[in-house]
Design goal:
Layout (H helix, E strand, L loop, with lengths): L1 E4 L4 E4 L2 E5 L6 H21 L5 E7 L5 H14 L3 E7 L2 H14 L4 E7 L8 E8 L15 H12 L14 E3 L3 H15 L14 E5 L5 H11 L4 E5 L19 H9 L4 E5 L6 E5 L4 E3 L1 H17 L8 E5 L5 H9 L2 E5 L3 H11 L3 E4 L3 E3 L9 H12 L5 H6 L5 E8 L3 H14 L4 E3 L4 E5 L4 E7 L5 E8 L2 H16 L1
Parallel strand pairs: 4-5, 4-6, 5-8, 9-10, 9-11, 14-15, 14-16
Antiparallel strand pairs: 1-2, 2-3, 3-7, 6-7, 11-12, 12-13, 16-17, 18-22, 19-20, 20-21, 21-22
Helix pairs in contact: 1-2, 1-4, 3-5, 5-6, 8-9, 8-11, 13-14
Length: 492
């Protein structure tokens, strides 16, 4: 479910709450949403007889975050939650620390919250919830709430059901200053435990890389990871703590021309581009070519399946998970190893739900999001960097690794929406026009045209008042033609 108030652009969905700071996102809105989440968690704590509620809080560092930070703190402690404040931190780092706190306090109910609007422009901010369930075999649990749970949290917010604590039960605030280091150490240990490499501390030796963290939460973690892996030199663009984005923050080709130029001019082996909360990673090869985000998950999966096969594990029993808008490249790579890909509705929570149900070794989304359960059930740019470098460690340039992947072109378009019903009507028209093809209606409608090795996905966005049209085919012309036809059908 996603609700939008067109008058003030407040977005409430499975992804949490997002709005424009000072307009739709006010101190009252932030505190109420944080309090509603804490109240929802408190109900579950009471049902489980837990004696304490702890919420780990992090923020993506964008300018203007101070108001959101303090209002969220007030909402959480005012509802009786004890807060572990990690400060400016990547979304996956908050996931890692939430898992650590859950293990440290097994008798408490533990959750997480990240103050971020992800790739949205500077004027936006938001709140994203993380919920813990049973620890899996990798001691990971924290992930985005399910759609049903997210809807309950939104309902509490809309009804202003916060459950404020009396004076003697107001929560306390503690700090976790080493959060980024803990995250990095977890990645290094996982690389060796999974057989990706024998010595994680030398994985990046001999490489010079360029990193663009858009002056936000990925700055400290990416630098620490690369230094810890022995990287020869790091060219860190967007690497200060100003919180001011040096370019539009969504990691798209048109936003990264200067970064691509910097990779070639400095002779870097690769460029790594994070979004503001650093759960997504886009790639640039040594030639300055924008590889993009669709390859990030594919290369991560390739590294993990290769490591598993080299260790003698039966990859034919393994599953992966990806949403309906993710490139079919992951299916092609999985087929090499006999692994199976589970397709889900768009949204990190949906992918994670499938991963947990089938004990998937990895999953994610085509927006550069790699979810590796050994680290956290949250998309993680640090894992993606490390897994990409492990493939390059064989001496193969990133451009060659990418060119060896099956060749497809993916095209994406956006259509502004007046209301959610417009997206539903569009999906119905697409279903009718492609009724003879393979259809998946979990989320809008995805059409697989197997005879042409192509697919089309039409759906309403969970985070913006738009409809997304995505097509993939062997050539850009084919993908564009598919989108053109889809728009004709929708407008007809």
């Amino acid at each position: 479910m996603s609700t939008t108030n067109p008058a003030d652009s407040l977005m409430l969905s499975v992804s949490g709450c997002r709005g424009i700071v000072g307009q739709s996102l006010t101190p009252e809105v932030v505190a109420r949403f944080a309090g509603a989440f804490a109240g929802w968690c408190s109900e579950r704590a009471a049902a489980s007889t837990a004696k304490r509620l702890i919420i780990v809080l992090g923020r993506d560092g964008r300018k203007g975050n101070a108001m959101v930070h303090h209002a969220a703190l007030a909402g959480l402690v005012g509802a009786g939650a004890d807060v572990v404040d990690v400060g400016v931190a990547m979304t996956p780092t908050v996931g890692v620390i939430t898992d650590q706190v859950a293990r440290q306090y097994p008798d408490a109910t533990v959750a997480g919250m990240v103050l971020t609007a992800s790739h949205n422009p500077q004027i936006w901010n938001g709140l994203k919830a993380l919920w813990t369930g049973p620890q899996d075999s990798f001691s990971s649990a924290a992930s985005a709430p399910s759609a049903a749970d997210a809807n309950q949290i939104v309902a509490r917010f809309n009804d202003a059901r916060i459950g404020l604590a009396p004076w003697d039960r107001i929560g306390g605030i503690a700090h976790a200053p080493d959060a980024a280091a803990n995250h990095v150490h977890r990645v290094l240990a996982a690389l060796e435990d999974a057989g990706v490499c024998d010595d994680a501390e030398s994985l990046a030796e001999g490489f010079q890389v360029c990193v663009d963290s858009v002056n936000s939460s990925g700055v400290a973690g990416s630098r620490f990871l690369l230094e810890s892996m022995g990287c020869d030199e790091i060219l860190h663009l967007g690497g200060d703590d100003s919180g001011l984005f040096p370019h539009p923050p969504e990691p798209l080709a048109e936003n990264l021309v200067s970064v691509c130029d910097a990779v070639t001019q400095s002779g870097c082996a690769a460029g790594f581009v994070q979004d503001p909360d650093a759960d997504r990673l886009a790639l640039i090869d040594e030639k300055g070519r924008f590889v993009g985000e669709e390859y990030t998950l594919v290369l991560g999966v390739l590294a993990l399946l290769t490591a598993a096969r080299n260790r003698g594990e039966d990859t034919r029993t393994m599953t992966l998970a990806a949403n309906l808008s993710t490139s079919r490249m992951i299916d092609d790579v999985a087929a090499r190893f006999g692994a199976r890909v589970l397709r889900t509705a768009v949204g990190e929570a949906n992918v994670v739900s499938a991963m947990k149900a089938h004990t998937s070794i990895a999953g994610g989304e085509g927006n550069g999001g790699v979810i590796w359960p050994r680290i956290t059930y949250v998309r993680d740019s640090l894992s993606a960097m490390a897994l990409t470098l492990s493939l390059m460690k064989t001496g193969t340039p990133l451009s060659k690794i990418v060119d060896d992947m099956p060749s497809y072109a993916i095209r994406k378009r956006k259509v502004d929406l007046a209301d959610r019903e417009q997206a539903k009507r569009a999906a119905e028209k697409i279903k009718s026009a492609f009724s003879r093809e393979r259809l998946d209606t979990q989320d809008g409608v995805r059409v697989d045209i197997d005879s042409k090795r192509a697919w089309l996905h039409v759906r309403g966005s969970n985070t913006e008042p738009i409809m997304r049209l995505i097509a993939e085919a062997p050539t850009a012309a084919d993908a564009d033609a598919l989108l053109d036809y889809a728009q004709q059908v929708i407008n007809g």
